Amino acid sequence: MGEVVLEMKNIVKDFPGVRALNDVNFEARSGELLALMGENGAGKSTLMKVLSGVWPYPTYEGDIYLRGELKRFYNTKEAEAAGIAIIYQELNLIPELTVAENIFLDRQMTNAFGAIQWSKLFAETQRLLDELNISDFKPTDKVRDLTVGKQQMVEIAKALSKKADILVFDEPTSALTDKEVAALFEIIRKLKRQGVCMSYISHKMEELQQIADRVVVLRDGKTIGPVTPIPEITLDQLISRMVGRDVKDMFPKGQFQRGEKVLEVKNFEIDNPDLPGQKKVKNASFCAYKGEILGISGLMGSGRTELVSGIFGAPPGAARGEIYLDNKLVRFRSPHAAIEHGIGLVTEDRKRIGLILGQSILQNMTISSLETVTNMLGIINESKERSLAQDYVKRLAIKTPGLDVKIDTLSGGNQQKVILAKWLNIKPKVLILDEPTRGIDVGAKVEIYNLLNKLVEEGVTVIIISSELPEVMGISDRILVMCEGEIVVELTREQATKELIMAYATGSQK
Ligand SMILES: Nc1ncnc2c1ncn2[C@@H]1O[C@H](COP(=O)(O)OP(=O)(O)OP(=O)(O)O)[C@@H](O)[C@H]1O
Ligand SMILES: [Mg+2]
Prior knowledge:
Keywords: ATP-binding, Cell membrane, Membrane, Nucleotide-binding, Repeat, Sugar transport, Translocase, Transport. This protein is α/β, with parallel strands linked by helices.
């Protein structure tokens, strides 16, 4: 670790009704990765946007020093010129353009006549990719054909092409496969050796040990404790810094009596729309019972999401096979039909499905639960709706000044909690959750597990997809493991170990 490159001192940032940052202080050094941790809404993304110069963030109070020099960036160009690059979770690339065009988008390489110098553009891009040891895509590839992980590498190459030496990652791994995460970490290690100063926001505790050098915690817009070297802090200490109390049981497990069979899926098959003749889901059969939490594990891309959306009727007609609900054969031609039969699905992609941007928290929480709060005359009982919503805001610790603020202004994790609240509110017969705690902080995770336990107690059948092994092992009664579109094994809670699940998920055990 080298000298102090970046210092943020006494930073305060207000939004209408919210003090997002309240006297934040920290420093980051060259050649290190500084983890920025904290609960949803703690102010992590806001702090990094203050650094980026993006409007309206330059209206903060406090001081930013770069290598000892006081700076204030009034737009992103100024921050970029000072060597700062931010890699957001929602990537900012243009899918229809090539990798090379995306990297040099705002610095056209043209000759004296204004024509783009393609060969120079591609050669320069290749040089950047070589520098990062990236060989699995080419400068001429279209960005839309790349996986999210590879698109992220394009963003990094873009940042480095601008000579950035302060790099910020805001939840970079939440949509990456294990392999892509490993590739990203390899690049980060290389950048450390080159002396780049990096700051890294993540809710994934395991990543800290692997990649971070020091950690700083934000809570309610304040820095809690000093910037601490990773070896000097235990996981428990870190969690209590984040949530302000000790968390004793990370995975509370309700004791249930397994009841009757509620859902049975037989011989489910879903074609791969991109590769004719190949299948996303092959011959999948399983049952789910009342009074249990059924976990579905597997690597990203193993067909888990396709399986559950297929059950839910999305996209319509994609799946072949049979679904029995309470022993009766049913067929859902659309998600709407599935919901009418009492099946709920919390999708993993909260940006595209689930949220209605521009609408209030209250509207988002109650949109498809209207029936439960509509009185006999068909009029929405507003005060009942409000009090239900208020209850979830409290239980899930959704950080907001009120129910009527637009959902867009909530932090990423808090938006996720609103979607979850909507479905918890509906209490369907079968609730399927696809990566429900992605991007959610530790304290709220525990609260979500508690709520799921409560739902099961009330008779709801819960099916949960999770990439996080401790989570799926901690809360499930049974676990199905998928590999390449097939359910390869069913494990009981007692049988399941990390090693066994991984062996089945990677196909090394059959
Ligand atoms: N544009 C905005 N208008 C109003 N409030 C905002 C705006 N942006 C952020 N906030 C509020 O500022 C606080 C901090 O949000 P921020 O996005 O920085 O949280 P975060 O720590 O990144 O959380 P997460 O882990 O959920 O991403 C939250 O209470 C949020 O609602
Ligand atoms: Mg954030």
